[in-house]
């Protein structure tokens, strides 16, 4: 288990990835994104997560360059959007993202959603990018077990990461166990359920015990479950607070109590019906 923001996990291809990240969804491209990325890096974040859909890849690249931290010390993820599926389309989409980021390579490239009938062909394009060294690792996002099993049947390279919605109201225990068995690193988007869990009595009580906020309790629970959280914020103080989770540990009992809050309730779309 990671013990600091700079600690890493080793993916199934041997690449190391920071165990805690910063997401930029809904940050405005340009100065807002650049400043928040730069702030996150100053607070020792080393994983930055963006996507073509977010339309702020330029700002991410600017923030990393302005941070003064060498490019190779920052792990950059971006994602292919739903209208970019297909072999040739995916290669073109990646080229566009790389140009917007103004980088020579991306650390992790993900299929954002499993578009039925298309994601296997798209995966072949990601494998080509991986073989050519333009990406250090390839993975998926919002894939259920049956999507992963379909991919396995045709893939030459197993996904290194599956980034999914994950929080105490959506613990996805079966998917988490499957990913662990298959040595696929699970990553959590919307780990705080868009702020909807921050007044829960249990999380408030546990936070009071440790002098922590409910958000910090949730992020600690996520890390202790070996899932990589990528909380997002446009507020520097929140960016700093989110990362201050490495000076306490939840007990086994507290971990179980938090997991028992599961309602199988999503704040975002269901991958089976979204596309």
TrEMBL record:
The record marks 79 as: Lowers pKa of active site Tyr. One of its GO terms (molecular function) is oxidoreductase activity, acting on the CH-OH group of donors, NAD or NADP as acceptor. Keywords: NADP, Oxidoreductase. The active site is at 54 (proton donor). It holds the Pfam family Aldo_ket_red. Substrate binds at residue 112. CDD domains: AKR_AKR5G1-3. Gene3D superfamilies: NADP-dependent oxidoreductase domain (3.20.20.100). SUPFAM superfamilies: NAD(P)-linked oxidoreductase. Residues 22-262 form the NADP-dependent oxidoreductase domain. PANTHER family: 2,5-DIKETO-D-GLUCONIC ACID REDUCTASE, NADP-DEPENDENT OXIDOREDUCTASE DOMAIN-CONTAINING PROTEIN. Belongs to the aldo/keto reductase family. This is Glyoxal reductase.
């Amino acid at each position: 288990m990671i013990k600091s923001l700079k600690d890493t996990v080793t993916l199934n291809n041997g690449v190391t990835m920071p165990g805690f990240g910063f997401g930029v969804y809904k940050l405005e491209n340009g100065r807002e994104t650049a400043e928040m990325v730069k702030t996150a890096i100053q607070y020792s974040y080393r994983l930055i997560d963006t996507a073509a859909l977010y339309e702020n890849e330029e700002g991410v690249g600017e923030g990393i360059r302005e941070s003064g931290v060498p490019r190779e010390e920052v792990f950059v993820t971006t994602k292919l959007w739903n209208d970019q599926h297909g072999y040739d389309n995916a290669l073109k989409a990646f080229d566009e993202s790389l140009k917007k980021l103004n980088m020579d390579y991306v650390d992790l490239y993900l299929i954002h959603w499993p578009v039925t009938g298309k994601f296997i062909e798209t995966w072949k394009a990601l494998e080509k990018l991986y073989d050519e060294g333009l990406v250090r690792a390839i993975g998926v996002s919002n894939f259920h077990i049956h999507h992963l099993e379909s991919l396995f049947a045709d893939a030459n390279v197993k996904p290194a990461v599956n980034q999914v919605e994950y929080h105490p109201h959506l613990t996805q225990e079966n998917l988490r166990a499957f990913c662990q068995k298959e040595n696929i690193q699970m990553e959590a988007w919307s780990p705080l359920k868009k702020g909807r869990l921050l007044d829960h009595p249990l999380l408030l009580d546990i936070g009071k015990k440790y002098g922590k906020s409910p958000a910090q309790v949730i992020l600690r629970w996520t890390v202790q479950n070996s899932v990589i959280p990528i909380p997002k914020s446009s507020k520097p103080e929140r960016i700093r607070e989110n990362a201050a989770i490495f000076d306490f540990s939840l007990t086994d009992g507290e971990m179980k109590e938090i997991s028992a809050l599961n309602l199988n309730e999503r704040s975002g779309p269901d991958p089976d019906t979204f596309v």
